[in-house]
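Problem statement: downstream parser choked on a complex file, so we are re-checking the raw output for the flavin-adenine dinucleotide run. The parser issue turned out to be on our end (a line-ending mismatch), but while we're here, posting the original submission so the record is complete.
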Amino acid sequence: MSDEIRFTLDGEGMTARTGQSIAGALIAGGAMSWRRTRFDDRPRGVFCGIGACFDCLITVNGEANVRACLAQVREGDRVERQEGTGYGE
Amino acid sequence: MASDCDVAVIGAGAAGVAASVVAARSGCRVTLIDVGDRPGGQYYRGADLSPSPRAGVDYPALAGDLDRLVAAHAVDYRPRTTAYALERAGQRLLVRTRGDDRHRQDVDIIGAGTVILATGAFDRPLPFPGWTLPGVMTGGGAQSLVKGQHVLPGRRIVVAGTGPFLLAVAATLLEHGAEVAAVVEANDPVVGSVRQLRGLTSGLGKAGDLGRFIAALARHRVPYLRRHRIVEALGEDRVTGVRIARVDADWHPIPGTERVLECDAVSVGFGFVAQLDLAAQLGARMIRGADGGLAVEVDDDQATSVPGLLAAGETTGIGGVEAARVEGLVAGATAAVLSDHASALTPSALERVRRQVARWRRFAAGLHATFPVRDGWVDSVREDSLVCRCEEVPVSRVREAVALGARDARTVKLLSRAGMGWCQGRMCAAAVDGLCGFDDIASLQGASYRPVSVPVPLGALAAEPVEG
Ligand SMILES: Cc1cc2nc3c(=O)[nH]c(=O)nc-3n(C[C@H](O)[C@H](O)[C@H](O)COP(=O)(O)OP(=O)(O)OC[C@H]3O[C@@H](n4cnc5c(N)ncnc54)[C@H](O)[C@@H]3O)c2cc1C
Ligand code: FES
């Protein structure tokens, strides 16, 4: 498939296919985790893949706690890894 | 911001698609709400199906019908939409919806005479040390990445848990070029022969699926390790291997049988849990399904104990994609009658479909008897293993809550915080119930009650219900 979408992960350029989820694009790009937990500071990524577990939360264009497994990538998205609650607390 | 219909169908999997098509073809105004961006649910995931050669009630025919009904505005199809609350307003039911995480503010309230709950299920995981490491995911999670995103979660993958679904996951991974290090099955299903397994599981997917899975495993020489379990996932910042052990008939690891399998991803699953939030909000009567999990009680017409609320598919008990489809057909016919329309299914067709429902349900019961979750995991799980992923609560803290006198799921939750996080207990409730020995319906139902099923903007919650 040729329709490539460009976005960034913490400022670094990444690509996705049209219709791909953020999680799909990140894993295709070699990232397995993009969130650290609030108590034990442990890495997390995709677990359920269907929006039920909320482990894949990520910040998109400043909005925290977006489920990466459901949200589709859009051209120019600024995606950022998330720490703790996602609100910088 | 408010709309109205005869029949609101929640979930566009096999059950919801079948129900929508029958109701709309009977003349009902149907609104179909689904989280996904294309119809199909967890099994079909918007797959491009070869067009069905003839009209009928198999899934490809129904999917084609749905496309035409949507184009003709007979079905108001709302993809990327979550139904987060269900409430009563006089004779009618109100479905509150929200857009996806990037459109949280897009809210609506849909009034309907009849609501069909077809929200499917999610995987049932059980905890072990390391199950929160990146690279460890549910079987459904692996399926969704590979089938939905065309992305492999790793190069060398261990598939573990119990049930024929493990074989489906392994086959998908192999077909897409991954190496499957082993299929680790905690039960011992193949007492007789592969043929017996095939008989038992042909109802799970489409006919012929299982033969294909087994052939793929044989071709790639993937070990099928029966009576084995993962005791620990290894790795620092992502999974690098699993420690597995042989287990006895009750799933206790047998000392001295441990060994390590190297891998860069793990798929785990012990069956599925029905998505019942919306049914619980209306107080629909629940039963324990054949797999021991909670399910909505329905009669032969797929009607729940709540007037106007029907249910079909995995919500009425985990039964696989064919059971979901035929139950959806029945629910659509019932909804037509409740909306004073003549059902598009003739009485003889409906009779045939009802017999199929009974047959697939029998199949599912046989399956669950072969692949149950056995008690041994409870006293062999390590105390420091997290049970609640969201609030990072270890097994030991759940046990402390019981020691402090907690006797129901709600109290355990309040004392331990297990189930209080983002997922609202979806991923840990089954495990917590197992750890505490809770198995009565009231306790299980308490844990499945969620006032809203996803986080919603405050403004949306404040909106007054409209009278329908
Ligand atoms: C992740 C996953 C992958 C699976 N993969 C397979 C497989 O490959 N092979 C197989 O044989 N079985 C698979 N299963 C088992 C599957 O549950 C059934 O085979 C089949 O999909 C059941 O059909 P259904 O219509 O009951 O539910 P589903 O197909 O699950 O459809 C339910 C639909 O409802 C939507 N939904 C849920 N809650 C809401 C809500 N509140 N608002 C709006 N929409 C909602 C969901 O997004 C989904 O599209 C899988 C299950 C899961 C959880
Ligand atoms: S992986 Fe579970 S919600 Fe995204």
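For whoever reads this later: Chain B has a mean pLDDT of 91.
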